[in-house]
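User: I'm preparing a small set of examples for a lab meeting where we compare how different chains pack in three dimensions. I only have the primary sequence for this one, and I'd like the structure in token form so I can line it up with the others. Please keep the answer compact; I'll paste it straight into my notes.
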Amino acid sequence: MISIIVAMDQSGLIGSDNSKNGIPWSNKEDLQHFKETTVGQTILMGRTTYEKIGKPLPNRKTIVLSSMTMDDPRVEVCHNLEELLEKYKASKDTLYICGGSSVYKQAMEYADELIIS
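Assistant: Understood. Below is the structure token output for the 117-residue chain.
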């Protein structure tokens, strides 16, 4: 199963280069919802999103989509998004797509569920 989980403002803004973690706002309830939904699950994010966060999120398997090699043994690197999405589409396990915008766009046609806040 493929789930896209995203927080956005009224104009569709999902991120900002001007914030510490890439999130352009601070919303405790939204962060708690994200955590409760994804803890114990597998999450996928793009390299830029991962670098903005700066580390894998605790208690989640983190997959980073990147065409480059990454020297971070704490994450799995995916070079072929379509192959990964097909694998999870046929699986009982859920893959949570966590951004950024390019990854969301590429994964949209595979999504079984959109979780938007």
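A couple of notes for your slides: The longest helix spans residues 28-38. The helical segments are 28-38, 47-53, 81-89, 101-107.

User: Perfect, thanks.
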